[in-house]
């Protein structure tokens, strides 16, 4: 069985302590990945600090060219990266390929943005003064990523940080390290200097502890659950380490009677079941206007039954294995609890197949507002559907959550579209769009869904400090 080394200061380093990587479609360990202890993280941060002056001194165009070279290397290895992503995460191969393509697009977007870290000249108020605003890289960045989109979410951090002139120590999720290590091969092949981009694995709390307490690490960019995000906030209070936090979600989908029904069903299926329901912007609560409720449910169920379930490497599979057995057990428990709270099981509700952590895609109807699954992140292929009567009522329900990452609505009413855009409390709103995220637009959450934004021009801003230069004696 292969043990993958870590990429540290331009070298491939193996360790005795390793992490077992499991294929969720079989439950079997198929690889090992090397780890570091806290001393190893400290060394990585020190090497990142040593690499910083030269990297920061390159022009934005030169750093952008490096990112374009990485993108070319990712393209060359796209099949290998997508295959290993499916093996370690369980998602269907076509979705892994989509994620690799999205990664390439992120690299290209931030390669171009590298040239546009504009400062500005501010008109002076006092005679003899002049004011310049400069944008400078934050410095050494610690990036911590989750397993659900294991590569693209790492690169949403690494690409803008590198473009801005920062150096990066990346900690991928323990469940999905391998596609990140294949990415590190692309970084090496693209010729980035040692220490500019490194990958560490090991105890998450030790790695985060070192990143929080070591003054070399100027910023942590984290994507993951809200409870861990809150722990990072507590840790950062001691050092004022800058934080960007991309946390959990509880996205509502609102289907109005004036929507195009086919478009609404396809969009809701994508928003709910893409990535096997394990997406931070997944449809968590599906509200359907009462006059079309029964028709929607039966058409939604009929379309869901045409989505093949199975191992992600099998041709044509649309819904793969969940990440692991505990995630499957939590999903099954959530279904039982929701039925006990008065919901109706329309389909699914049980394990799929003989091995691997598969759930039969599930629809729960008539789900009461106070059911657990309407208030917590489901993170599983379970659709919770409920009827509504008025626009006012459903907007209030949609906003009645501590989260605010994404919201979706299906309607063909222009005035309503604008009212929804203004009143829904979420960082991303898909109107007649079940897959709204794109490299060139900001992504992030309101309320407990996080701090800051990734992607778009805002994604680059997150890795820049703002400096005011005041010139006196200027006549
Ligand atoms: P998680 O348990 O919070 O883990 C995310 C990352 O944090 C992993 O690398 C994990 O390492 C690490 N981690 C665990 N404990 C830590 C600690 N004490 N200090 C610092 N880091 C720690 O979340 P997950 O289960 O991987 O991902 C699912 C969650 O992420 C969901 O809530 C989802 O909504 C959210 N998410 C948000 C976005 C967004 O953009 N807003 C995108 C995707 C996912 P180990 O793997 O080694 O435990």
Topology overview:
Blueprint (H helix, E strand, L loop, with lengths): L2 E2 L1 E3 L2 E3 L4 E6 L4 E7 L3 H20 L2 H17 L1 H12 L3 H21 L6 E3 L7 E8 L2 E5 L7 H13 L2 E5 L6 H12 L7 E3 L4 H10 L3 E7 L2 H14 L2 E5 L4 E5 L5 H13 L9 E7 L3 H12 L20 H16 L3 E4 L14 E4 L6 H4 L6 E7 L2 H9 L3 E2 L1 E5 L3 H10 L4 E4 L14 E2 L2 E2 L4 H6 L2 E8 L4
Parallel strand pairs: 1-5, 8-9, 8-11, 9-10, 11-12, 13-14, 13-19, 14-17, 16-17, 19-20
Antiparallel strand pairs: 2-3, 4-5, 6-7, 7-23, 12-22, 15-16, 18-21
Helix pairs in contact: 1-7, 2-4, 2-5, 2-6, 3-4, 3-6, 4-5, 7-8, 9-10
Bound molecules: NADP nicotinamide-adenine-dinucleotide phosphate.
NADP nicotinamide-adenine-dinucleotide phosphate binds next to α7 and α8.
Describe the structure.
There is one protein chain. With 475 residues, this protein is an alpha/beta fold. It folds into two domains: 269 residues, Aldehyde Dehydrogenase, Chain A, domain 1 (3-Layer(aba) Sandwich); 189 residues, Aldehyde Dehydrogenase, Chain A, domain 2, CATH 3.40.309.10. The protein has 15 helices and 23 strands. Strand 16, helix 12 and strand 17 form a beta-alpha-beta unit. The longest helix is centred in the first third of the chain and has 21 residues. Bound molecules: NADP nicotinamide-adenine-dinucleotide phosphate (NAP).
């Amino acid at each position: 069985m292969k043990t993958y080394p870590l990429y540290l200061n331009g070298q491939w380093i193996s360790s005795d302590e390793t992490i077992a990587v499991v294929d969720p479609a079989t439950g079997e360990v198929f690889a090992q990945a090397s780890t570091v202890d806290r001393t190893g993280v400290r060394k990585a941060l020190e090497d990142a600090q040593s690499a910083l002056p030269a990297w920061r001194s390159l022009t934005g165009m030169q750093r952008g060219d490096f990112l374009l070279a990485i993108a070319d290397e990712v393209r060359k290895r796209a099949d290998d990266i997508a295959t290993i992503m499916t093996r370690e995460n369980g998602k269907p191969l076509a979705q892994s390929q989509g994620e690799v393509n999205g990664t390439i697009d992120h690299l290209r977007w931030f390669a171009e943005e590298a040239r546009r870290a504009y400062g500005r000249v501010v008109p002076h108020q006092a005679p003899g003064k002049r004011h310049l605003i400069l944008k400078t890289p934050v410095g050494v960045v610690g990036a911590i990523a989750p397993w659900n989109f294991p590569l693209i979410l790492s690169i949403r951090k690494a690409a803008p940080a590198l473009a801005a002139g920062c150096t990066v120590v990346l900690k991928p999720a323990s469940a999905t390290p391998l596609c990140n290590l294949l990415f590190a091969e692309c970084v090496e092949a693209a010729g980035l200097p040692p220490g500019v981009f490194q990958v560490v694995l090991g105890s998450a709390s030790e790695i985060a502890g070192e990143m929080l307490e070591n003054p070399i690490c100027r910023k942590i960019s984290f994507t993951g659950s809200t409870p861990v995000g809150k722990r990072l906030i507590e840790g950062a209070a001691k050092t004022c380490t800058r934080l960007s936090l991309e946390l959990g979600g509880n996205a509502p989908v609102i289907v109005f009677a004036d929507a195009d029904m086919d478009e609404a069903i396809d969009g809701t299926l994508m928003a709910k079941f893409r990535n096997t329901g394990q997406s931070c912007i997944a449809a968590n609560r599906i509200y359907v206007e009462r006059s079309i409720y029964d028709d929607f449910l039966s058409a939604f169920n009929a379309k869901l039954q045409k989505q093949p379930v199975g191992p992600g490497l099998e041709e044509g599979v649309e819904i793969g294995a969940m990440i692991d057995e505990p995630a499957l057990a939590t999903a099954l428990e959530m279904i039982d609890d929701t039925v006990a709270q008065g919901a109706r099981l329309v389909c699914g509700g049980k394990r799929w197949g003989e091995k691997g952590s598969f759930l039969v895609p599930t629809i729960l109807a008539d789900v009461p507002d106070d059911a657990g699954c309407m208030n917590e992140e489901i993170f599983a292929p379970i659709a919770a559907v409920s009827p509504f009567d008025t626009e006012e009522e459903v907007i209030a329900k949609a906003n009645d959550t501590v989260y605010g990452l994404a919201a979706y609505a299906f309607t063909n009413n222009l005035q309503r579209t604008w009212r929804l855009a203004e009143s829904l409390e979420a960082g991303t709103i898909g109107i007649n769009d079940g897959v709204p995220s794109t490299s060139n637009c900001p992504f992030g959450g309101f309320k407990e869904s996080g701090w800051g934004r990734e992607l778009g021009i805002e994604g680059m801003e997150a890795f820049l400090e703002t400096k005011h230069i005041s010139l006196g004696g200027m006549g």
